[in-house]
Specification:
Blueprint (H helix, E strand, L loop, with lengths): L14 E13 L3 E7 L4 E7 L5 H9 L5 E10 L7 E12 L13 H6 L1 H4 L3 H23 L3 E2 L5 E2 L11 E4 L2 E5 L4 H11 L1 E9 L12 E10 L3 H22 L1 H6 L4 H5 L7 E3 H10 L13 H8 L6 E4 L12 E2 L2 E5 L1 E6 L4 E9 L3 H10 L8 H5 L8 E7 H9 L20
Parallel strand pairs: 3-5, 6-10, 12-13
Antiparallel strand pairs: 1-2, 1-4, 2-3, 4-5, 7-9, 8-9, 10-11, 11-18, 13-16, 14-15, 16-17, 17-18
Helix pairs in contact: 4-6, 4-13
């Protein structure tokens, strides 16, 4: 019967046929060991010369890397394998022979691997990272569905800039100007006024000319928005959500975390509640750590975030940033209007900000004033002002960057390995 590698645990002692690719092989005289993958996982196929037809054994020894096959054999338990099973091969049928596969088991440079990203995805490490990414996405839908959220899809083409920045990809929309979305947030606020609690999951684009290990030009965001949620309510939801996805990966991706040699003890500690410090306290902490150049009113860079994160064993919220360095829509602290009711969630181990969120301004006059201060077109944002005109309520939301979160949880150094086909400053291929 046909099976996949992920299903062989249900077929112990039975003969199965698996469609697979040969990722590697080795032989020692009378035994050939085939490293097989089928997309669902990896398994070792063992071909014993005395137990198969001579033709089958010779075929096994001559197979080239990434040749596609149908492999038939008996499923056996194998305590030595991280997967726990192996295949006692009886027959091999070649579907397509791969010749001169470019990514060999030797070391390759990053640029070479990125040029061959369409093939590099097949490797064990990349497979593990993508499976962890998939689990985070699955757990995200599960978490928000359980909490009664409705998924809403905001547009990718927009006529204005949610963050009010110039780092946008511009295009012509017939006879109008349009931009690739840098966030679905404003549209999610409109959806929250209709459905109460909503979330989106989709691509966003930032035309930042940055080459750091934390930045991509195109990345994916999870953006929840909640009516009748104040700042504190949002923080509690954020720490519940992050705890949930981390624990889901620990539960369902043990094999992948092991393949990446991830120190899971650090992830096991990620349980709500998370520590919190204010922007003021963060400035003091940085001064104590030797960052004398950072002054109140300046935004934090990667070294600052890393230094703050090193002070804690869990993700840490930095709250109450100065209003002048945050977007126009954030609610001022009523007790201290020069700061806003916002928070960035900084991941441990130097992975930086993974969530940015805030309570949103819900007063019409204040929002209009802020738009004018940021020199933004009132006409372009009239629909956004309407949300404060017809039944406005306190509301909050946040955005989680998927690729940085995958990098942190999986322990890989660079976000380019956490998205199937990364778009970087100097890379649009493949």
């Amino acid at each position: 019967m046909k099976s996949t590698i992920s299903e062989v645990s249900q077929c112990i002692g039975q003969e199965v046929t698996i469609g697979a690719w040969l990722s590697n092989k080795r032989s020692s005289g009378k035994i050939a060991f085939l490293q097989l993958r089928d997309g669902t996982g990896f398994i070792q196929g063992v071909v014993v010369k005395n137990e198969v037809e001579e033709e089958v054994f010779q075929k096994a020894k001559s197979l080239s890397q990434e040749t596609s096959l149908y492999v038939t054999g008996i499923v056996r338990e194998d305590a030595r394998s991280p997967f726990g099973y192996e295949l006692q091969v009886k027959d091999i049928q070649v579907i397509h022979e791969a010749v001169d596969y470019p990514i060999t088991p030797k070391e390759h440079g990053t640029e070479f691997l990125m040029d061959h990203r369409h093939l590099w995805l097949r490797s064990r490490k990349q497979h593990a990272v993508m499976k962890i990414r998939n689990e985070i996405i699955r757990a995200t839908y599960e978490f928000f569905n359980q909490k009664g959220f409705v998924k809403i899809d905001p547009p990718i083409l927009t006529g204005s800039a949610p963050e009010g920045t110039t780092e946008l990809f511009h295009t012509k929309y017939f006879d109008e100007d349009a931009y690739l979305s840098q966030s679905g947030q404003l549209y999610m606020e409109a959806a929250a006024m209709a459905f109460g609690k909503v979330f989106s999951f989709g691509p966003t684009f930032r035309a930042e000319k940055s080459k750091t290990r934390r930045h991509l030009i195109e990345f994916w965001m999870i953006e929840p928005e909640m009516a009748f949620y104040e700042h504190e309510d949002s923080l509690k939801l954020q720490e519940q959500y992050v705890s949930y996805i981390v624990q889901s990966v620990l539960k369902n991706c043990q094999l992948e975390l092991g393949r990446l040699e991830r120190d899971t003890s650090k992830l096991e500690n990620v349980q709500a509640p998370f520590p919190r410090i204010t922007y003021d306290e963060a400035i003091e902490l940085l001064h104590e750590k030797g960052f004398q150049d950072i002054e109140w009113g300046e935004d934090f860079g990667a070294p600052h975030e890393t230094a703050i994160a090193e002070h804690f064993e869990k993700p840490v919220f930095i709250t109450h940033y100065p209003a002048k360095i945050k977007p126009f829509y954030m609610q001022p602290d009523p007790n201290r209007p020069e700061v806003v009711l916002c928070a960035d969630l900084i991941a441990p181990e130097g992975y930086g900000e993974i969530i940015g969120g805030s309570e949103r301004i819900h007063d019409y006059d204040l929002l209009k004033k802020r738009l004018e201060e940021f020199h933004l077109s009132l006409d372009a944002y009239q629909w956004y002002l309407d949300l404060r005109k017809y039944g406005s309520v306190p509301h909050s939301g946040f955005g989680l960057g998927l690729e940085r979160t995958v990098a942190w949880i999986s322990g890989v150094e660079h976000v380019r390995e956490t998205i199937p086909f990364p778009r970087l400053l100097n890379r649009l291929y493949p």
